[in-house]
Amino acid sequence: MTQDEGRTDFAGTPEDDEEAIDEGAFAALFGDRRRVVGVVIAFLLVVVAIYVLLPRVIGFEDVLVRIGQATWYWLVVALAATGVAFAAYVALFRGILGGLSQSEIFNRLDLRASYQITMAGLAATRLFSAAGAGGIVVTYWALRHAGLRRRTAAARMVAFLVVMYSVYLGALVIFGVLLRTGVLPGMNPVGGTIVPAAIAGTLIGVILMLALIPADIERRLRRLAEGGRGERAARIAAKLATGPATVAGGVRTAISYLRHPRQGALAVGGAIGFWGANIATLWASFEAFGGDVPFAVLVQGFFLGMAANLIPSPAGGVGSVDAGMIAAFLLFGVPSEIVFPAVLVYRVMAFWAPIPPGVIAYFHLRRTVAGWDEQRAAYTSESKVMPAAT
To answer: Distance between CA atoms of 108 and 113, rounded to whole angstroms?
Structure first.
């Protein structure tokens, strides 16, 4: 449990300037109509380039025609799986960012508030690029208004990412090795199995090593600043250590939450459910076009394609992930006449579907945050008029 676990800022005044900047930045995401229109146009151009122009270049002009031939009930299954993925994402959020069930923050970040924050964050991430900065802004903004201290909010956001992407990295290692060794059926190219498994294993090791950074590293460095010839250098080092210390605290928070019998199950179940439901959406999308992709290939191709999120995209991941996922399944030998329409359907379900409810959730979240601010103001007023204890 972190030092600030369960504590809030209600007893004091939050950093008003910081909160105003955060809220203004997030409101600007949806308030600039020209920017929203520009992003939508960019989305459409990229989609046309990938699913209309690219198939024509490589000789598969009938992709859009094949979409009209999809088996309808598999599309219903894909849509239902997408809904399960969103529900699991909310559970993961509540399990990590809500804190322990005994805390005031956990009660404040109930299912309703957790849904609003996650869906609004997903919409912001999809509508605006910069490596998901929109989602990070709304999540941090909401957590600060909910009462979390700055360092605690940052650490829990790190813990959230660690739990979620530990499942991602672990799957790349497990299925990459099992495919390459022939334990699971399917094509097993080195570039799609052992190479990503090795990279994922290295990243897991790095994450675990971050947990070894001492919790009091900043205090140790500040001690060096107390006199001596290296005073200035020690102060600079202490400031630079803030980031690694926060990340390390987030990793340790993730581990401690995983050990908690109730919150650990909610967090891990949410992470596994989120990725599993996304894979189910992709599976149903393949089935809609008669694709019979081996399970291990489906999982490995999905996670390998999602790695394209790291590639800069002009429109929140549109284009890079689509192309990456198509390339991944082509690498595993899945016929291109099935890959193109299946990936398009999956991306429509998983990428575009959260945007309308996410924008609606944002406006509901603003009212929720206003209620939290009123509670804080009332608490502060009561504290000022309360007579001092004798």
So the answer is: 8
Q: pLDDT value at position 3?
A: 40
Distance (Å, whole) CA 319 – CA 306 = 11
Cβ-based neighbours of 261, under 8 Å, separated by 6 or more:
none
Q: The tokens 């329409």 sit on which residue?
A: 341
Distance CA 61, CA 386 (A): 74
| Average pLDDT of the chain, as a whole number | 77
Domain definitions of the chain by residue range? 16-382
- pLDDT of 12 higher than 50: no
What's the confidence (pLDDT) of residue 390? Answer: 40
The residue written with tokens 């991602």 in the block is 168
How many Cα atoms sit within 13 Å of 143 on the Cβ side? 27
Q: What is the pLDDT of residues 334-359, one digit of tens each?
A: 988 889 889 988 988 888 788 888 88
* Beta carbons within 8 Å of 325's beta carbon, 6+ residues apart: 301, 302, 305, 306, 308, 343, 346, 347
Nearest to 298 by CA among 201, 170, 185, 166: 185
Query: Where does residue 95 rank: exposed (0-12), middle (13-18), buried (19+ CB within 10 A)?
Result: buried
140/114 Cα distance (integer angstroms):
13
pLDDT digits (tens, 9 = 90+) for 67-114: 777 888 999 999 999 999 999 999 899 888 876 656 677 788 888 999
Provide the pLDDT for residue 34.
Answer: 67
